Amino acid sequence: MPKLAAFPKLYMQALCKDGTMSLAEWIDLAAELPIDGLEWYAGFLEMQDERNWKAIRGKVEERGLVVPMMCCSPDFTHPDADFREQQVEKEKFWIDMTAAMGGQFCRVLSGQRRPEVDRQDGIRFAAECIDLCASYAQQHGVTLIIENHYKDDFWTYPEFAQMMDVFCELVGQVKASNFGVNYDPSNTILAGEDPLELLRRVSSKVVTMHASDRYLIEGTIEDLRNEELGVEGYAKRLSHGEVGKGLNDYDAIFSELKRVGFDDNWISIEDGVEGMDQLARSADFLRRKIVEHWGE
Asked: pLDDT exceeding 90 applies to what percent of the chain?
């Protein structure tokens, strides 16, 4: 049955910016959760020095956990070829990091939706870069996973392949065999689209998943779909919260994943913005649903 990982969404500032939390502290906290592994982030401060990698992996494994997947944000849609080449080199470094931590999956994205780059060029740029990175990743036993993403925290523009039709076309253009989809149902909601429609279109390619949830603070889902999300951040009427209490239908999602053989794969919890208790409740909910759909 699928395995659970956790992502330190609550502690990203502390782990990536001001250094007020160590990775050892996060690992100890996470080890108390009913999970099997940790989704890693390429921007953790302590991961920038390769000499730390072996000891940090050892700490994870001492607590009975593994690091199956790496979260990172390459930007492959810039019109300048030299910029894209630099992004490929960054992704190769993150692939090295993934392999050193014992991981199987390393994220890629398309890039920013720059106004001067048209749809076909953007898809071509991203697909070419992903294929270059996939060739390198294959040598390290790593599979690249593309997420239906919204926007990296440090980007000016939203994800080039945010919308379903562009995302599906890009996925179809990538030639590499060590390539799949990291499905995030909540990001589809942010795009004003149907998470189940996207899942049905790409389910045979889904190899990992982000489990998260969104709530409507006000209005209706129709209001959301009529909004212009723009470049100023997440839709104001949506809030990020506990998995199982928001807009996503996890029974329908898991039924489709079970149908296509998503059986020994990883689901990473992107939750806990209100604390570890919330993250634990999300983990418990997902454990129950996994047992319901896949059995003991």
From this structure: 80
pLDDT at 225: 54
Query: Alpha-carbon distance 96 to 147, whole Å?
Result: 20
Cβ(189)–Cβ(195) under 8 Å?
yes
Local confidence band at 221 (pLDDT 50, 70, 90 cut-offs): low
Give the single-character DSSP code of 79: S
Residue entry with tokens 């009975």: 64
Closest CA to 179 of 136, 130, 125: 130
Give the mean pLDDT of 56-74.
Answer: 98
**List of domains in the chain:** 3-294 (3.20.20.150)
**Beta strand residue intervals within the chain, DSSP E:** 3-6, 37-41, 66-71, 105-108, 143-147, 179-183, 206-211, 214-216, 238-240, 266-269
The model's pTM is 0.93
Element (DSSP H or E) covering residue 137: helix 119-139
φ and ψ at 252, to 5 degrees? -70, -40
- Average pLDDT of the chain, as a whole number: 92
Distance of alpha carbon 146 from alpha carbon 212, whole angstroms: 17
224 near 238, Cβ under 8 Å? yes
Higher per-residue confidence, 228 vs 248: 248
Q: Is 238 helix (H, G, I), strand (E, B) or coil?
A: strand
**pLDDT tier, 222 (very low <50, low <70, confident <90, very high otherwise):** low
**CA-CA distance, 103 to 132, in Å (whole number)?**
19
| CA-based nearest residue to 147, from 174, 113, 181, 119 | 181
Structural contact between residues 278 and 13, judged by C-beta atoms closer than 8 angstroms: no
pLDDT for the residue numbered 215: 73
What is the C-alpha to C-alpha distance for residues 131 and 41, in angstroms, rounded to an integer? Answer: 22
